[in-house]
Amino acid sequence: MPGIPARREPHPGSKYPSDIVGRRAKDARRLHDRLSQEATADRMVALGHGTWTRQTVGQVENAERNLTVDELVSLAAALQTMVAYLLSPASPADPFTDEPVDIGGPDPLGRTEMRGLYGFNRTPHPQADGYYEWPDMTFKVGTKWMELEGEGVRYE
């Protein structure tokens, strides 16, 4: 498709985040009284995204167009859902099983890593009520291992 940069295929058995957002957006749109792509685009225009059309919605749903952060938040509002829902890698076949997600590293990230990145595994900080810290989590990014520990990120 013209104007869409070529990208490599995701790792076998995994999806790109844009694939997940597109599928979840389509699911959310259909859950709300079968909201049409046109009506979704109209809602996005009303939220200040004046260039959105039915075709734009289709491109997002088919992972042919990436969203800005502003568009992601507005799309969640337009679809009357949560941003977390749009980002959730839950498998359509089994909502209790997350699909591996390819973020560009040598291996896709699994359930624990993705839930940590999205903040679903945050735990209360034992020292202060209301503060949160990341769980201990390690995953490979490029040729380095990145470890998320408490407040810092350490590369080896």
Give the key terms.
alpha+beta; 15% strand; disordered C terminus
Description:
- This protein has 156 residues and is α+β, with helices and mostly antiparallel strands.
- Among the domains are: 17-87, Orthogonal Bundle (434 Repressor (Amino-terminal Domain)); 122-155, no CATH class.
- It is built from six helices and four strands.
- The chain has helices at 17-31, 37-46, 54-61, 69-78, 83-87, 111-117; strands at 123-124, 132-141, 144-150, 152-155.
- A four-stranded antiparallel β-sheet has the order 1-2-3-4.
- Strand 2 (132-141) and strand 3 (144-150) form a beta hairpin.
- The chain is globular and about 40 Å long.
- The model is unreliable at 123-156 (pLDDT under 50).
